[in-house]
Structure formats: C-alpha cells, structure tokens
Amino acid sequence: MCVLNAAHRSRSQPVEAVEALGEDARATGCVKTMTALLNGYRSATGLSDSERLDRVLEVLDYMKSEGLKPTMTTHNSVMLTYLECAAPRQAVEYYKNHVEGSATRPDEITFKILVQAYELLGLPHKVAEVQELEDSMRIISGRYVP
Q1: Number of domains in the chain
Q2: By residue range, what is the domain housing residue 31?
C-alpha cells in the first residue's frame, strides 16, 4: 500500500514532517511512495541545497538497494532537484547515466528539464538538440502533442 499521496509531494513541508513520513514510506516497498518521499525532501523547508540534494539521493540509493526500479517520474524529480540546487551540469549527467539509452522513456517533463539545464549552462546548440530529439520521439511514439 502506498502511504504518501500527491498532497504530500506537492507542497513544501518542514523537513521534520518529511522525516516522520520516511520510516512508513520505506516500509511500504512502493516505488510511488518512495518517489513521493523523494519529492517531499526536494521541496522540504529547513534544508540547505546540499542537504536537500543529499536527502533526495539517499532516498534514490535506498530505492535501488531495495530493488525498486525508479520510474521516469523519479528520474525527473532527481534532475529537478539538481536544477533547483543550481547544479544543471549534474542534471544533464544524471540523465545521461540513468535515462539515456535505458528502457525508461523520457517524457515532456524530462525534455523541459534538459532544455532548462542547457540554457543555464549557456549551450544553445544542446537546447536545439534536445528539442529535435523531443520532436523525433513525438513523431515515433505519438505520445506527445506538439
């Protein structure tokens, strides 16, 4: 049973509130719940950027150690955390190491994150590449509406 819902992951809460939910979340073995916990840390108040990033990566590592396969939502949340913590290069590296070439298909949010990261890095040619990739995937999969 997944114990955290959209309300938990969509609003900022004090870090203590997120930590209180953590033990219950870990006990569920549910990817959606662990992703919600990860997002709780991503938006928690009372953490520095480095602490926020550490907590998010700890949850991700825990998921992997328990054999829970991160979803694209999980990956997007990690990449967003890097962006929000002023680490766009790490967001791109995360994508390259965990999404690109994997069975996990990037979605519209993934492409928006990559565009924002490349814009922050001052790499307009990479922005164009991402937009071309998104367009080609849209044509192939029919999943996206231009």
Answers
A1: 2
A2: 1-70
Rounded CA separation 97/64 (Å): 15
First CA to last CA across the chain, in angstroms? 36
Q: Are 43 and 104 found together in one domain?
A: no
Calpha distance 90→73 (Å, rounded): 17
User: Which pLDDT belongs to residue 146?
Assistant: 43
* Radius of gyration of the CA atoms of the chain, in A: 16
Strand partners, 79: none
The answer on 101 and 46 residing in a single domain is no
Identity of the amino acid at 23: E
Tell me, yes or no, if the pTM score tops 0.90: no
Reported as a single tens digit per residue, the pLDDT across 38-68 is 999 999 999 999 999 999 999 999 999 999 9
Note whether 112 and 145 are same-domain residues: yes
- Distance, CA of 30 to CA of 132 (rounded, Å): 35
Residue 78 in contact with residue 60, Cβ under 8 Å?
yes
Distance from C-alpha of 22 to C-alpha of 91, rounded to nearest angstrom: 24
